[in-house]
Amino acid sequence: MSKKKNGSSGLGQLLIPLIALGILVLFNLFRDISFFSITMRVNNSGNIVLAGNLISIIDNASELAIIAMGMTLVTAACGGQDISVGAVAAISGAVLVKVLQGMGGITPVSLLLGFLAATLVTILFKLFNGTLVAVFRIQPMIATLILFSCGRSIAYWINGDATPQLYAPIIDSIGKTIPGIPIPTPIFAVLLMGLLLILLFRFTSLRLYTQSVGINQGAARLNGINPTTVKLISFVILGVCVSIAALLGVCRMHQLNHKNLLVDIEMDAILAVAIGGNSLGGGKFKLIGSILGAYIIQMLTTTLYAMNVNPVNIKAYKAIVIILIVVAGSPVIKRGLTALWKKLRTNKAQTEGVN
Amino acid sequence: MEDGIVLTMRGICKAFPGVKALNNVDFTLRKGEIHALMGENGAGKSTLIKVLTGVYEKDAGSICIDGCPGEAHIHSPQQAQEIGISTVYQEITLCPNLTVAENMFIGRGKGAIVHWKEYEKRADEILKSLGIPARANQELSRCSLAVQQMVAIARAVDMNCKVLILDEPTSSLDDNEVARLFQLMRDLKAKGVGIIFVTHFLEQVYQVSDRITVLRNGELVGEYVVEKLPQVELVAKMMGKSLDDLAELERIGQKGAISDNCVYEAAALSSSECRPFDFHIRGGEVNGFTGLLGSGRSESVRAIFGADRVTGGKIRIKGKAARITKPHDAMKNGIGYLPEDRKRDGIIADLSVRDNIILALQVIQGMNHPISRAKAEAFADEYIAALQIKTASQDTPIKSLSGGNQQKVILARWLLTHPQYLILDEPTRGIDVGTKAEIQKLVLKLAEEGMSITFISSEIEEMLRTCSRLIVMRDRKIVGELTGDDLTQAQVMKTIAGGEQTDE
Amino acid sequence: MFEKKNGAALRTREPLTDTQMLMFISIGIFAAMYLAAVLFMGGGFRKPQMFFDLLNDNAALIIISCALTIVMITGGINISVGGVIGLTTMACAIFVNSRSGESGTVSILLTLLLALGIGLGFGVLQGFLVARLEIQPFIVTLAGMFLARGLTTILSLEPVTVSHEGFQALVESRVKIPWLGYVAPNGNLIPAKIEIGAIVAICVVILMALTLHNTRFGRNVYAVGGNPQSALMLGINVKRTVFWAYVISGLLSGLAGFVFLMHKPAGNASVAMRSEMDAIAASIIGGTLLTGGVGNVIGSFFGAMILATIQKIIFLSPLNASWWQDMANGAMLCFFILLQSLILMRRNNSKTAGKLQKNLKIHKADKTTEGKEEKHET
């Protein structure tokens, strides 16, 4: 009995995003059923790959989904959001490219080293954010506003004004597909990151720690939890997420453009967290909600593209759909619906009683 | 409406998901009377008050106020204020970032412009007349909690209310402040204000009240004139059982053997909040810290647990030197601490009862050794049964439990870690009489089993019942230590008040 | 013992509140920075016109900083202000061009109404969603920003330059300050000039400061930000207060769009990109806390002026490059945030200590007064 109740309350959080996704799917089914067609085709480098809107939605949402996972943790622990992820991703990309250039060529080894260096730098920058938040008790949004406003300039400073082009088989393998495997690699990156986090939650009690700190930091401290450490850990994990997303972004575009790499992704990531039903005030969280949120956002974008909406105008339509989703998930509407549902049930019970 | 009656509530019902908080409750308040509203935790007192002040909407029933024709429909605290119902809540409901004067006048009156000068002048007059040591243009957050509470009362008083509700107003006041508050209540009574007084302190009820209405489990038990309801009967009515439990306890006292070895010793321990003090506790001993509010009793035990920044001192655990500078150190050394402020420092509101129970044990085991789900469920079941925690399931968020049951969950959290030394700071505050007795019994039982316990309570009787040694504090200093035959209320009072000779 | 007489204590000056403290720090830093620029940079900074140019160039920023301050005091945030500026400039540019040849004053008034109407629309919508439906302000105003930016590009992808003559006259009009200026090499006094937008901005700051400090609504805003539950219990209509805060914020954003158009008479999809973050930075530097309840538009004004001065200094220095600007902004923001954090932490610590001491004093005072009473009785 108790387990059943738990299950339904867990689903409650995911109800709105699932319905939103369902409506988007239905809408596309009625609009143009070929939207869902998946074909095999040969790409530029001669590999057989899966193609179609569904694949491209899941593929293109990868960076967003990965960052949304990290953002969920930071949100849960700190009760605020990191708005510098896009800017720090640019720094991460810049370091990656700098290492690649320094090693004089793109090989799997140099790429790995570059990625490790980039991850390290990203984590350092995230620790800077984390320190401001955890030690100096600054609201996350304000603390990350600093890197938001100068992160891309730091990337520029690291790498100069150039937009270096990167062409190598390994770059294609990461940004597009690995020869012989028809599914785009970024999708695997999402799975990998998700798996890593699931294992982390399975083999440590990080989830309990994070939620405790997010809900009641003072009480958590009196129970021996060090809130500073927990918050810093959440930022480190976000750093890893950002670094992976930056790698995918760079490989996908074959180039580093410090102005455009993962631009505005912070806003989409925060949206994904909120659409997934997670409270932006911290506390309890569901990773799967945020991932779902990321795919909803991407599906919306792709649907609008498919409807031949001018890419620059997409923001307006996106805004309307987002407002509809958050309104549907708003506490007031939820309360109203619960009250209505109860009324219907009691009415039903009454009529049954009469019968 | 009858003459002399300012408020009638008839057939009030209010349900929350899963709970029927109020069921057909009647309440009558007359002019110039102090009417105590009594009941255990979860009896529905707060809900009734919140229905009356428009915080909750009632499901059924009617409310009539003197001077308002027909039924009064109260949908917001503002409306309640307008028809003459003022409230002072247990938790201070003022804005810390505004001045004292603003807190007294905001949300009242008409007009778009704030007349600062006039406000401050009037506020100063009122503060002066009530003898409240605050200045009108002072930021509220710079006043002590007690003064903040009095400002809240001053605000209510100034609104010329017909009905004044005091919801646990004395829980953060010391005896002098309580006496002054009672004087204020009597003055208002003389002016014809009807006062609803909600409290857990039985003695206080008998000091000031004229009538008592008792609620139990959301239902009305009855309305009584104070003189005709002896204290014992009142408790019996509130609990639905007799006081024998408590009486028995009084006779038993602590009987377990106290070992000679110190479980915990501190020399010149000091923290950012308290001055250096020496302290020790033996195995199986129950001791207590007592003193007025602000005497440093809570700060001292917080220093023992490392809850505040420890600034100095030598600590020995079972004779071996140890270093305790943060809660985690204390927990590793087998010390548990149930904090004074349950809501702020104890519960993790949104987490389930189960997560709240295993939290401390999990932290001691370390982040890398999570307690499995099955084990956690077993622990939770065990302690929910052992402490008779009333909860729908172990997945229920702790915030939806009543205060007493929340406290039991926190207690379970520490018992699960099997500490050798457990600190309980006001474990019985804001808890119904029944649970109080349960907790006191539990303390004695644990001590018998060999656990050392420090017990703090603002009710001296309770401490005398449970402790074998009392440490008396005044002005953040230890001024005396009482054992054996000295453990009487008179001696404690004497030490608190006149311990000048023990000063240097 | 130390507070023997209430009367004497009354006359003592109250210590600065957090709001005032943070505001004075930002005013002090602005003054120091400007003085340093005058002393070490010389050149343009020696002329009063430089100060007015800072106002002229940043009038819109000053207005949206006020717009942000009021919602931040309620504990919310509004990141749609930049988007609304963009939309307003575009809509107004298109509208005023469509009325070319018609009377200047009427066209300008109608354009102003359009600008305010757009702002009001956004304010009402966002206020409703935040206050009534209790949706997180960040998400609501983020959606608002997307909507405004999207609508701007739907109106026109290409920049629209204002060609309406009446409006252009307005753009070029300046108010001269005859007694302030600098002496040109030929001996003539060249008076300092202020744009109308800058005057509007200053009026907005004064008006908002008065509103927040001296009106019932303004104080309610602080109360709601300080503790919404308490505010509710004190009889304040929290939802209405929050709603109106967003409405005012939206209205000011619309006005800022109009002011922006008066400064640069062209609608453009990328106008005021990310200016919401500058406005947030200005508010924070001016001492507004994102947690709510603390803040002041005067502080935000100086916050905006600090940002503007940095920009100017870097522009006039050999480091002139956009990325140096960003770095300097970031560094400045970091400095202020850390400074505030340290001040607030220290004050909180001393506050708890003070609380304890006060408690003790009250106990003592009580005892003495009681003693006296007893004596009277005997």
Write the layout of secondary structure elements.
The complex is a heterotrimer of chains A (355), B (504) and C (378).
Chain A: H1 2-31, E1 39-42, E2 48-51, H2 53-60, H3 62-78, H4 85-102, H5 108-134, H6 140-159, H7 169-175, H8 185-203, H9 206-215, H10 217-222, H11 227-253, H12 265-275, H13 287-306, H14 314-328, H15 331-354
Helix pairs in contact in A: 1-13, 2-13, 3-8, 3-9, 3-11, 3-12, 3-13, 4-5, 4-6, 4-11, 5-6, 5-11, 7-11, 9-11, 12-13, 13-14
Chain B: E1 5-16, E2 19-30, E3 34-38, H1 45-52, E4 60-65, H2 77-82, E5 85-88, H3 100-105, H4 116-130, H5 145-158, E6 163-167, H6 175-190, E7 194-198, H7 202-208, E8 211-216, E9 219-225, H8 231-239, H9 244-252, E10 262-271, E11 274-282, E12 286-291, H10 297-305, E13 310-317, E14 320-322, H11 327-332, E15 335-338, H12 342-346, H13 353-365, H14 373-386, H15 403-416, E16 421-425, H16 433-448, E17 452-456, H17 460-466, E18 469-474, E19 477-483, H18 489-498
Parallel strand pairs in B: 3-7, 3-8, 5-6, 6-7, 12-17, 12-18, 15-16, 16-17
Antiparallel strand pairs in B: 1-2, 1-4, 8-9, 10-11, 10-13, 13-14, 18-19
Helix pairs in contact in B: 13-14, 13-15
Chain C: H1 6-11, H2 18-41, H3 48-57, H4 59-73, H5 81-98, H6 104-132, H7 137-155, E1 160-161, H8 165-172, E2 174-183, E3 189-195, H9 196-214, H10 216-226, H11 228-233, H12 238-263, E4 266-267, H13 275-285, H14 297-316, H15 322-377
